[in-house]
Specification:
15% of the residues lie in helices and 34% in strands. The chain is α+β, with helices and mostly antiparallel strands. The N and C termini lie far apart (75 Å).
Length: 220
């Protein structure tokens, strides 16, 4: 008698089914579950910070003190997936004390069991800022969309000068830390923006791309 379909399914190893079902995988050596998932957030939680005096905002302090590594290296693009890794990141000289505090709080308040911080380095002219419109992620790749607009009239800036910019996205997924690709696309100026500069909270970083354009970071 031929075996039933249920009997055949029951004989398939669970390991073989795992990839089809998209269940959790584990990082080798960490023991913590990480998900290989995809998604898009059209109203992302993002922190933006400027460094008018240098080429980077975030630095990698993991190897400082080792032979031949006296100075921390600039962070380009990275998925920060653990508290230990977040603690290794430092902030470059030239970044304001307010932004230093905001960056540290942002990293410390992330729940790395369920969230991931995507850090990306960018640049912008001093009198402009970036408005983040969406961020998308898939295994080993993150992309975001933005538009460029003038900063508020009362923001100090120097026409023609460029400043270093760090974007820190809090993604609502515990991703694999390996990042092999990233990208961004944007337009200038922003369209359909009804920004009321006088009502923006000056120091808050909150979910959403409207109120997460804050004073002291790229939001000003």
């Amino acid at each position: 008698m031929s075996p039933t379909r249920r009997a055949l399914l029951g004989s398939v190893p669970l390991v073989a089914l795992a990839g089809c079902l998209g269940v959790e995988t584990r990082d080798e050596g960490s023991g913590s579950p990480r998900r290989r998932v995809s998604g898009t957030d059209t109203d992302p939680t993002v922190l933006k910070a400027r460094n008018p005096d240098g080429e980077a905002v975030l630095l990698d302090g993991a190897d400082v003190g080792d032979e031949g590594a006296d100075d921390p290296a600039p962070i380009g693009r990275e998925l920060v997936t653990t508290e230990d890794r977040a603690a290794e990141l430092s902030v470059a000289e030239g970044v304001s004390d307010a932004d230093r505090s905001r960056i540290r709080s942002f990293l410390e308040e992330t729940d790395y069991d369920a969230e991931t911080v995507y850090a990306s380095r960018a640049g912008v002219r001093s009198c402009y800022r970036l408005r983040i419109e969406s961020v998308s992620w898939e295994p080993r790749r993150v992309e975001y969309e933005y538009c460029r607009e003038l900063r508020p009239p009362d923001a100090a800036c120097e026409a023609g000068e460029r400043v270093a910019l760090a974007l820190l996205f809090r993604l609502p997924a515990a991703l694999d830390p390996e990042l092999t690709g990233s990208g961004s696309s944007g337009r200038s100026p922003c369209r359909g923006v009804d920004t009321e500069y006088e009502v923006l909270d000056a120091n808050a970083t909150v979910p959403g791309n409207v109120t997460a354009v804050d004073e002291g970071g790229d939001g000003s």
